[in-house]
Amino acid sequence: MSNTETGTETEAETERQTSDSLITTDVETGSNGRATASERTAVAARDVDVYYGDEQAIDGVSMEIPEKRVVALIGPSGCGKSTFLRCINRMNDMIDVCRVEGDIEFGGKNVYDGDVDPVALRRKIGMVFQEPNPFPKSIRDNVAYGLKIQKFDGDVDARVEESLKSAALWDEVNDKLDSSGLDLSGGQQQRLCIARAIAPDPEVILMDEPTSALDPIAASKIEDLIDDLAEEYTVIIVTHNMQQAARISDRTAVFLTGGQLVEYDDTTTIFEDPEHDRVEDYITGKFG
Amino acid sequence: MATDNTATTAFGEVSRVRGIVFEYLSFGASVFGIFALAVLLIYVTIDAFDLANANPLWLLTYFITLVVPFLGFCLYSARDPAVTRRALVAAGGGLVAIAAVFTAIEAFVGQIPRLNWPLAYLFVVIIPLTGYLTYVGAQGRAGSVGFGLIGRLLGGTAIGLAFTVLFLVFDARLWFLVYTLGVVPAVLAYGYGRIRSVPTAQTAAVPVAIGGLFVAVFLRPVVDTYPTTVFIYLWTLAVPVAVAGGFVVNARGSRTAALAAAGGPLAVATGVGLLGQPLGLGVGGPNALLVVAVAGVPTAVYLHRVADVGEGVTGLGLPVLLVAGALAGALLVESFGLPAPDPWLNGSFVTEAPSRNAREAGLYPAIVGSVIIIAMVAALSFVLGVATSVFLEEYTADSGIVGALTRMVQINIANLAAIPSVVYGLLGLAVFANLIGFGFGTAVTASLTLSLLILPITIISAQEAIRSVPDDLRRGSDAMGATRWQTTKNVVLPEAFPGILTGTILALGRAIGETAPLIMIGAATTVFSAPTSLFSRFSAMPMQIYAWADFPQAEFRYGVVAAGVITLLIILIGMNGTAILLRNRAEGEN
Known about the structure:
heterodimer; A: alpha/beta; 6-stranded mixed beta sheet; 10 strands; 32% helix; B: mainly alpha; 4 domains
């Protein structure tokens, strides 16, 4: 975590391809004590509007997501938080009627620029979905999938082991790497999907309600895991569970109906002293 | 009244009459259909094997030596007591029920023509019962030796037959050159790339193979000294089979055993092939080498597995049982001097050319023709069908002009599936025979025409299979940064493969039985020698059977046609069995 300190010239040089967009913000302690000093921005959105045909799903969202932190996106159903998440790795491109306006900067580049290859972009940004979706292949092949498609030429087995350990799954599966990923339980499958996402060593991991299909015990394992992942990765998580957001995230963004980002601040602030009454109403369960 | 009803029965009643009527009507209709088909097939089988004239004692002998032990084996393999109990109940119930049905028909309808009691029992009771028992046996633990083994026997025989026929029909010397210059270097390159993980070497394998193929075709007329046929067979067939067997055994652990399993049969095969005839053993030459090597290596591999793992010991029982049963039956029949029936479907029927004389008529040229055509149709329609369906499902857009065009293509494909096969025959005649000039009634014209005929069915079923792959998996792969091609190749196709295979199997079943398009493209009804190249005149099994059915002699219409139909069915079932086996294996892997 030593490189969260920015501003020295040597670092600016080593990170030269991203240095233009690095924005330094001062953030106080997050809810779980990870953040201490100034941080770099991993992903920055500016005035993002998303339309499905004529319908506007996201309305002028601007936010900066700090590197190696957990940022939770919460809000009622249909408020556009999942849509926003999918804009970051351009998964919305798959939907014909979807149109995105505004800038999303990642690695010093607007990901919606014409010369950005969405496939190359997705290799830098891992994603975990709501329903565990391991491939009908062996556990080993599941984790090695990203390495295979990127023609990784190092030691695949070592990387598989490392990723499974990072996903806290190694102890449960190390003796059956060749059995099918579908034979695992739901919680294990989701951790397998996380291992699959981190194996190619992305910079950002997007999680779209990763625990909503799991039982509380499996969900709490995933939560612990997310906490550990923030040591190395930037995690952006969409969740419906406000306790979960409060437990695991450093910063929280509250989307409300109409696709507006109403409030984005440290998680403690959002949950203890929100600025907007609507946010307070939502968090205390008066609506949504 | 309504209030009275609700008072007497707490919630009232909801009528299910229509559902129940529907259920039993459908059930009755399916049972009737299957029963009618079974009766037809029984008659055909009886005709083909001339069983109507068989001596009851002869039947009884084989029943005791062959069928009873087989049943016993099936019962033994169905160790599960519940399954066994169900099987016994079904057996007893089936025997009584069938007896009752036959008695009733004989009593009220009239004499059942050309069908006698032992036969009725053999076919209506014993065979379905055997099938059922083998099936339930397959569900149990030990049962895997029953159904699986039969499937493997059938499928393996079909593959072996197809391969041998292709090998014999095509020029062995050309094959030798292709193998030496193309296949071996390509396999070596791929293996090297795999072991040392050099991706370029793996990628190079395909161009190397194609290059070798072209060089071989070019060199075939130029080079004029070739090794003897024995050596060609040894090098191109026996050695790779032995190497493959060795690898299988080696993968299970022991290197010495691998050497023994691969080298032993290979040495015996070489010895028999080279020295058999000079030493006066009565066997020898290239064919002996082929048989010993191709049968010996898998046997050695299997024996090693039995000895090593202890698995499938009971599986060895079945072949032993069948062979011993057949031998014992033959011995008894011989020693008691029982008159054997004279089956129409016998060894010479499948190895001889057609003849004017019913007793000498054979199906061999038509079998070879059909196998060549089906092999080509399978390859062509599978590749084209899968490619088209992948394009339509994964690559085209859903909306806009492209989407509208795609939908038009879709509708047209669906319509093409409904076009009568005669029209395809006309198309084949016009395009492949006339325009391109592949010739009238040649194997290649027939293959292309039949491929076109079944392509719409293949495409539609492959599309259905691809569509049933969950979108979650595609999104998962896309989110990993896979290109569409990588997603299709690594996730969609493996998952859709069993479904695609099912559709292709059904379509091929249709192609193998087609007659009308073959008539249109001018295929011969009868040829007297097997086709020797893709441009030879050929005949197919359905054509030949159709021709025989028109012969004036009753022997042709009742005996030879029945034998032809049974041969066609056996080959069809063998091919389907192979494909189903492949499909199940693919499903098991997933």
